[in-house]
Amino acid sequence: MSKLLESQAQETQALLERVLYELKKVIVGQEHLLERLLVAIVAGGHVLVEGAPGLAKTLTLKCLSQVMSVEFKRIQFTPDLLPSDLIGTRIYNPASGVFSTETGPLFANFILADEINRAPAKVQSALLEAMQEHQVTIGRETFPLKAPFLVMATQNPIESEGTFNLPEAQLDRFLFKLLIQYPSAEEEMVIIQRMSGESLAELEALLDAEVILGMMRQAQAVYLDPKLMQYIVDLIDATRKPGQASILYGASPRGSLALANASKAMALLNGRTYVTPADIEKLIHDCLRHRIILSYEGLAGGLTPDKLLDEIRASVPPPAMTGV
Questions:
Q1: Which of 216, 290, 296, 319: CA 20 to 30 A from 248?
Q2: Residue 137 bridge partners (DSSP)
Q3: What is the per-residue pLDDT across 15-28, written as a single tens digit (0 to 9) for each?
Q4: Using CA atoms, how far apart are residues 162 and 99, in angstroms rounded to an integer?
Q5: Quick one: which of 154, 216, 178 has its CA closest to 16?
Q6: Which of 68-72, 196-200, 297-301, 309-313 has the least mean pLDDT?
Q7: Which DSSP letter does residue 65 get?
Q8: Contact between residue 1 and residue 23 where contact means Cβ atoms under 8 Å apart
Q9: How far apart are CA 198 and CA 193, in angstroms?
């Protein structure tokens, strides 16, 4: 049985490597973003991406939906957006005298919530049920969303005018918060050459929704040793120490679950049926940076969530694992 599971994991790894190869026909660089998106999809989570404009965030998710043969919708968040613009609304037909339901753009597999922090809190709250329960409620009816379902939200760190901070409850529902940077000079040369051509490369559809759901079930079955569970708990607990004046609030239990589920998906991405300490260590910053609220003392001292997580990672050593 274990040999069969290992063989299936290696087949999944090979298929996901083909997906990455296809994406790189169009996307230059951004290896970290591409890998974490695959991890998030396999883990069944959502992704918050922070980066300057023009870094191929929209193009990446659009290409990924083509390679995975799923429906993609882009929603531009603005200050005048209403919840019904996302989930849909009830429409009255005067001829028949009955109401019908018109569903919104959330009824797709991959959703790009562009500049999500430009919409007010009532719009953000409309996403909470969708992100957590994979369903939306319109009037008295509840509608399930398509599976798989991924929200990739973007934030522009440069402009703060006309933006709203995301509620902590919503931030906690993102599996990852990714910080993406400008391409290198060599990568930018390739971008210019590639975009100056007559057309972009044709992308091959390699997966479909059923294959993705099968990968998600595979990831859930990946073995997480109790020692590594305790390691995750120790990392999360270190963010909650009341003696640390620099921390106002630490990560919630969703942080523990996020790190556990993401590490399983990362193991599967590497063709393994078990998690290693390295899988967890790779994901600490992406899983936890948005779940920690620093105090005024910490912010005044120049502390950032990433610096704090560096300190925690150094102070909480991973367990010694035999045979790993």
A1: 319
A2: 142
A3: 999 999 999 888 88
A4: 36
A5: 216
A6: 196-200
A7: H
A8: no
A9: 10
Q: Token pair 């430009």 is at which residue?
A: 118
By CB atoms closer than 10 A (0-12, 13-18, 19+), residue 233 is middle
Q: Which domains does the chain have, with CATH numbers?
A: 1-217 (3.40.50.300), 222-324 (1.10.8.80)
As given in the structure block, the two tokens for residue 309 are: 């997580």
pLDDT tens, position by position, 167-207? 787 888 999 999 988 888 888 888 887 777 655 678 888 89
- For residue 161, pLDDT over 80 is answered with no
- Paired tokens of 295: 């105090």
Q: d(Cα 104, Cα 130) in Å, to the nearest integer? A: 12
Would you say how long the chain is, in residues? 324
d(CA 40, CA 263): 10
How far is C-alpha 221 from the geometric centre of its chain's CA atoms? 20
Specify the DSSP class assigned to residue 118. G
Query: What phi, psi does 280 have (nearest 5°)?
Result: -70, -45
Distance CA 94, CA 154 (A): 40
Label the pairing between strands 150-155 and 110-114: parallel
247, HSE (Cβ side, Cα atoms, 13 Å): 23
